[in-house]
Each structure stands twice: as C-alpha cells, then as structure tokens.
Amino acid sequence: MKKIAFLIAFIGLAFTGTSQQTITATITHDAIQREYILYVPASYTGSNPVPLVFNFHGYTSNATEQMWYGDFRPIADTANFIIVHPNGMPDATGTTHFNVGWGGSTVDDLGFASALIDSISADYNINSDRIYSTGMSNGGFMSYHLACQLSNKIAAVASVTGSMSPATFNSCNPQHPTPILEVHGTADGTVAYTGSNFSKPIIDVLDYWVNFNNSNATPTIINVPDINTSDGSTVEHMIYYGGDNDVTVEHFKITGGQHTWASTAFPSAGTNFDIDASVEVWKFFSRYDINGLIGGPTLIESSELNDEISIYPNPTANKVSIQCYVIKSNDLMNFTHPWKTNS
User: Fold this and answer.
1) Predicted confidence (pLDDT) per residue in 292-340, tens digit
2) Are 281 and 158 in contact (CB under 8 A)?
3) What is the H or E stretch that residue 208 is in?
4) Which of 56, 59, 263, 328 is the most exposed place for a label (fewest CB within 10 A)?
5) Is the bond leading into 313 cis (omega within 30 degrees of zero)?
6) Domains and CATH numbers, the chain
C-alpha cells in the first residue's frame, strides 16, 4: 500500500480545485486526538438527510491511501452520501491498525466510531437509519466489529478482503437483521480465504450471518461475466435470500483473486477487473436502511427489465420472491408475493 502514497500525493495536487469538499479533521476520544478525512460531495445541500459511509483502511495503511485506493468519491458525487475515512492508531509495533481483538490492542475504536457518528451528525444532516461501514482488510474486520458491537447505529456492512477476527466472532451481539457483503479472493495470501489464527474462514463468516438473519441456507449463485480475461480471476456472486426484514447475505467470490480492491486505480497482481468493489458495495448499501430492505414492490414496465431474473426459494410452500434488474438505472428490484398451490 505504501508504494502508492507518492502517486496519490501527486494526483492530489491536480485536484486541489475540489479540495473544499475534502476535510481533514480531528476528534478527541478517550483522551486521544484521533484523525479522519471527511468527503462531502458537491451535491450535499443540508436540506435533506443523507447516508454516511465509513471507509476504513487496512493494516499499515492510512485514511488518505484508502480514500484513493478504495475510492467512493465519484459515486458519492452522484448518489449524495458523505464518506468518513478514519485513521487508525499505531499498535505496539508502531503499525496503524483498528482494534478488532488482535495483539492485545487497547485502542477503543468502537467508541471512536460511535463518537465520529455523533460528531458528524451534529455538523451535517445525516440519515441515522442509513449509516454503513466498509473497508479494506483490517478495515473489513473493523466493519464486522461494528456490525457485532455497534449495530444500533450501523445499518449494513461490506468487507473487502477482510474477515471476522476470532474475538469479534465469539463475542458478536448484533441487535437487528444485518445485510452483509463480503468481497474476497480465493488466492488471498494475507487474509486467507480458508482462515488463519487471526481470521475466521470466509464460509464460517457467511454461515454466521446467514444463521443470525434466518436466511436461506443455500445461496443463489450468479456467474459474473468474465469481461477481463487477462486478470487471472473470475467471479461468482453468491446471494443468500430470505433473511428477516428482507436482508441478504452476499459474497463476491473471486476465484484466483488476491489481497486487492477489485478495479482499484492502483492495481497489483491478482486484482480483479470483472467487478468494481466500490460500485458493488454502494449498490448493496443503497438497498437497505437499519430496518431492512428500503421500500416495497414498485410497479415498472416489462420493457425496463433485463433478462437476469431470479425466483427464490424453489421449491416453496408459502411465498415466492422475484429479483430482477431495471435496465435504465441498474437498480436491483425485489418482490415478495404469497404463493398458493393446488393440492
């Protein structure tokens, strides 16, 4: 990650014209001055409440690098949400991190995140039902940690190349059905897909949230088109439907993918280009608030739909759900209806 710092600094000079939207600030929590970078899109007026997205960096990284590496700013400009990029504290070895139960860290990052929400909400018109968390690697671990321990403030989380630490997994205590998205490569050499002494296997993480949300145990699997045949990886989109409050647990399984952010502007070996992790994370978040799926069935014309339609569960005894994409907006639509059989 460090190797991109100079390039980021150089690119940043070219965008000083938009610097008024990027605010570097501090907040004192637990007697420690904590740093963060806030991105406020030009579309924000303050007249209507907007979502807030946490974007946590990985171990050894920092807020500036994550702001560029896992970039949501172009999406925020059109979707109108605010992004906060927190800075982690040095651990015992001097390495920046977020405390998810590793190495005896005593940093109160849960309290820091909660204080950030309160502080930003005091200064901006934030929709308290639409606060989300995502991040790279350690930032993904931190997002799960928030889902487990700060779920009264967090609507949904997405982890990119992260997992749940054993400490987070064993003490997880979410308070509401929680939409979960995991983006992970099977060849990840840093946070192993099959788990390690500091991370749970990805299948165990998915199973935990499937069970907690009462989702269907068998996922619907969509093969993502291999639009970049030279990146050495392919993608399956696994979706566990049927959760309470219509939430889903989802997984982009990148076969052959390594420890990278899909379609980042700063790629390294093993980066997948069949999906854009930032785009997929926001598409996922945008469907939910803290109460579950936003809205209900919407009447649309058949000409607006594409051919990708999923019907689940199959077989069924009492209800059927239909999922499809609206062509003009690429929005995911969900419909649930009673299902009666002649018997």
Assistant:
1) 999 854 434 444 344 455 554 555 544 455 555 443 334 444 444 333 3
2) yes
3) helix 202-213
4) 328
5) yes
6) 2-295 (3.40.50.1820), 298-343 (no CATH)
